[in-house]
Design goal:
The protein has helices at 9-20, 25-31, 36-49, 52-55, 61-85. With 86 residues, it is an all-alpha fold.
Protein backbone atom coordinates (compact mmCIF):
# COMPACT_ATOMS: atom_id res chain seq x y z
CA UNK A 1 0.00 0.00 0.00
CA UNK A 2 1.38 3.41 -1.01
CA UNK A 3 1.04 6.11 1.63
CA UNK A 4 0.29 9.69 0.69
CA UNK A 5 3.63 10.91 2.03
CA UNK A 6 5.43 8.27 -0.09
CA UNK A 7 4.31 10.00 -3.30
CA UNK A 8 6.72 12.25 -5.18
CA UNK A 9 6.42 15.85 -3.85
CA UNK A 10 4.77 17.13 -7.04
CA UNK A 11 2.07 14.46 -6.91
CA UNK A 12 1.58 14.92 -3.16
CA UNK A 13 1.04 18.65 -3.74
CA UNK A 14 -1.52 18.00 -6.49
CA UNK A 15 -3.48 15.61 -4.26
CA UNK A 16 -3.52 18.02 -1.32
CA UNK A 17 -4.44 20.99 -3.57
CA UNK A 18 -7.32 18.95 -5.02
CA UNK A 19 -8.64 18.29 -1.51
CA UNK A 20 -8.19 21.95 -0.52
CA UNK A 21 -10.44 23.08 -3.37
CA UNK A 22 -13.37 21.53 -1.50
CA UNK A 23 -12.58 23.03 1.91
CA UNK A 24 -12.89 26.48 3.39
CA UNK A 25 -9.66 28.12 4.46
CA UNK A 26 -10.55 27.55 8.12
CA UNK A 27 -11.15 23.84 7.49
CA UNK A 28 -7.95 23.57 5.44
CA UNK A 29 -5.92 25.26 8.15
CA UNK A 30 -6.89 22.50 10.60
CA UNK A 31 -5.11 19.98 8.37
CA UNK A 32 -1.89 21.97 8.79
CA UNK A 33 -1.54 20.23 12.15
CA UNK A 34 -1.26 16.81 10.46
CA UNK A 35 2.43 17.11 9.62
CA UNK A 36 5.04 19.49 8.23
CA UNK A 37 4.52 18.50 4.54
CA UNK A 38 0.76 19.15 4.87
CA UNK A 39 1.44 22.50 6.54
CA UNK A 40 3.83 23.55 3.78
CA UNK A 41 1.45 22.65 0.93
CA UNK A 42 -1.56 24.21 2.68
CA UNK A 43 0.33 27.42 3.44
CA UNK A 44 1.48 27.65 -0.17
CA UNK A 45 -2.04 26.99 -1.44
CA UNK A 46 -3.65 29.57 0.84
CA UNK A 47 -0.98 32.20 0.16
CA UNK A 48 -0.50 31.77 -3.58
CA UNK A 49 -3.57 30.14 -5.07
CA UNK A 50 -6.72 30.82 -3.09
CA UNK A 51 -8.80 33.95 -3.48
CA UNK A 52 -8.58 36.36 -0.58
CA UNK A 53 -12.30 35.93 0.06
CA UNK A 54 -11.65 32.27 0.85
CA UNK A 55 -8.71 33.08 3.13
CA UNK A 56 -10.64 35.71 5.10
CA UNK A 57 -14.05 34.01 5.19
CA UNK A 58 -15.35 34.25 8.74
CA UNK A 59 -13.56 35.68 11.74
CA UNK A 60 -11.94 32.51 12.95
CA UNK A 61 -9.03 33.02 15.36
CA UNK A 62 -7.02 30.50 13.35
CA UNK A 63 -7.32 32.68 10.23
CA UNK A 64 -6.24 35.73 12.21
CA UNK A 65 -3.13 33.88 13.35
CA UNK A 66 -2.53 32.60 9.83
CA UNK A 67 -2.70 36.12 8.41
CA UNK A 68 -0.46 37.44 11.18
CA UNK A 69 2.14 34.83 10.24
CA UNK A 70 1.71 34.94 6.44
CA UNK A 71 0.11 38.31 5.68
CA UNK A 72 3.30 39.72 4.18
CA UNK A 73 3.62 36.76 1.78
CA UNK A 74 -0.07 37.00 0.84
CA UNK A 75 0.23 40.69 0.01
CA UNK A 76 3.55 40.26 -1.84
CA UNK A 77 2.03 37.47 -3.92
CA UNK A 78 -1.07 39.53 -4.76
CA UNK A 79 0.90 42.64 -5.68
CA UNK A 80 3.44 40.64 -7.71
CA UNK A 81 0.66 39.01 -9.73
CA UNK A 82 -1.04 42.36 -10.27
CA UNK A 83 2.22 44.09 -11.24
CA UNK A 84 3.16 41.33 -13.69
CA UNK A 85 -0.24 41.46 -15.39
CA UNK A 86 0.10 45.17 -16.26
Amino acid sequence: MVLLLDLPPELFQLVVNFVLEELSAAEASKYRLTCKPFANVIDDDLVARQGLSKVFKGSDDMMTRFFTAHGGAILRTRFAVRANSH
